Amino acid sequence: MDDFLDVDGLKASFRDVLSVEASVDTVLAHFDHARGMARPLWDTIVGLGWTALSVPEAHGGLGLGIDALVALYEEAGRAVAPVPLLSTMLAADAIARGASETQQANWLPMIVAGAVVAIDPPAPLQPPTLTIAPTVDGWHLSGTTRMLDAADADRLLHLAVAPDGSLRRVLLSPEQVEGLPLWDHGHTLSDIVYRDRPISAEAVFGTNGKVEEALAIHASLALAAEAVGGSQALLPLTIDYLKTRQQFGKPIGSFQALKHRVADHQTRLEGDRLLLASAAALAAADDRLAPSEASAAKALACANYAELARDAIQLHGGIGFTAEQACHLFLKRARLIELLFGDRSLHLARAASALDLEIAA
């Protein structure tokens, strides 16, 4: 973690922008009429230099660490921002960690300038489904992969297994990728099939278990942060409604049963926020417990966010089921990120691995 970085100030600056550019009304309108990313919002994010946050300074970035990215992911989650931040920033991380200097010089400035990159999940979170075989003058790529945000992407960063069992990352331009609309209209899902597609050597770089684990930590922290941010927006929204909705001559928020439900959600949210901060600190320090702590944060924060989103609709009564009210935005995003890059059982199993580390220490 950068001791000189004002994370709270950075987070406040993100929030100030997103509260205007990704206001509730703006996001509701996008969900109502569009599928996939909100291009105007993405252009604003690029113009403010947010896509340069973690890119090395040598390639036009700011060179900030995971703590800055977590702050950004949290505020994007608060706004339910319909932009491919995670996929693009994770791809930048993969390139910075594994690609050659020449490849980094060619690709990272492209991301800083606003190119959207979809990425296959890190190997610890999902085994690769593509294979890559060497040829006389390059490689051949085969198999089927399912990618988030590929329909909006300028580049696709795949993960493939070579005949000797080693892992390769492959950066390609998409060819007529169609996206299946999701319940969360800010993203799309695409099935991409390759049959011995020729790949130039310049588009391929090696990766390994250590790099893929670092990417898994990044993805887990990002989704945990998005869940915490979404929860921090949705819970006050629900509490405000409970204070104004009247039944039997008094606000429904005065009823003890509803107070208890809100208190339970607040307690879980505080726990999620503290666990996220702990996991981010471990990741910044490259601590051996970082993988398990990040997975614990992802599993718990995403599950609690989904539960809060479901409960918020109930607590809002009939209006909570309408498209004009914001609750459905949070529920759709919560359900998506709960399953994205590994479900709860996978991340709980990764979190449990810390027990063996603690016993052996």
Describe it.
- With 361 residues, the chain is an alpha+beta fold.
- The chain folds into three domains: 7-115, Orthogonal Bundle (Butyryl-Coa Dehydrogenase, subunit A, domain 1); 118-207, Butyryl-CoA Dehydrogenase, subunit A, domain 2 (Beta Barrel), CATH 2.40.110; 210-360, Butyryl-CoA Dehydrogenase, subunit A, domain 3 (Up-down Bundle).
- It has eleven helices and ten strands.
- Strands 1, 2, 3, 4, 5, 6, 7 and 8 form an eight-stranded mixed sheet that branches.
- Helix 7 runs parallel beside helix 9 and helix 8 (256-284) runs antiparallel to helix 9 (290-315).
- The longest helix has 36 residues, at 209-244.
- The chain is globular, with a radius of gyration of 21 Å.
- Residues 20-114 form the Acyl-CoA dehydrogenase/oxidase N-terminal domain.
- Belongs to the acyl-CoA dehydrogenase family.
- This is Alkylation response protein AidB-like acyl-CoA dehydrogenase.
